[in-house]
Amino acid sequence: MSQSFTLIDGDHVAEVEAAIDGATVRLAPDALRAVTGWELKPEGLCKGDTCVPVRDRAALADARGVDLAAFARVLDRPIAIDAAERVAALGTSAAERSARMATLEAPDFSLPDLGGRMHRLSEHRGKKVLLIAYASW
Prior knowledge:
This protein has a seven-stranded mixed sheet. A three-stranded antiparallel sheet has the order 4-5-6. Strands 11-12 form a two-stranded antiparallel sheet. The protein has four helices and twelve strands, in the order E-E-E-H-E-E-E-H-E-E-H-E-E-H-E-E. It has a domain of 94 residues. With 137 residues, it is α+β, with helices and mostly antiparallel strands. The two termini are 35 Å apart. It is globular, with a radius of gyration of 18 Å. The longest helix has 10 residues.
């Protein structure tokens, strides 16, 4: 039985239909492609001209869909899944984070100020910026 599921991939948040069985979340191949750009082909998981070989195809996908946790493992991306709340967040791969760190440039993001006005980090490139982060937990 398919249920509505939220998948967060970077700045992209999408509602998709997913088959949830305990802690396992499976997406239809079309939904996976629409949200992440990756699709399962005979040569592996592919996005554009890039293909990542899949050693254990049966562990990645079956008739119910593509296992989201296995998908993240194949691409070496961290993932946080809360099947009960029907949400998952895909992290950036270690290789991608390492490449970004080498540039010494922070990724762009937006946050509201105390008045609610949105600010993007990219609006302040070349300037000194003080960012204070706080969490109540």
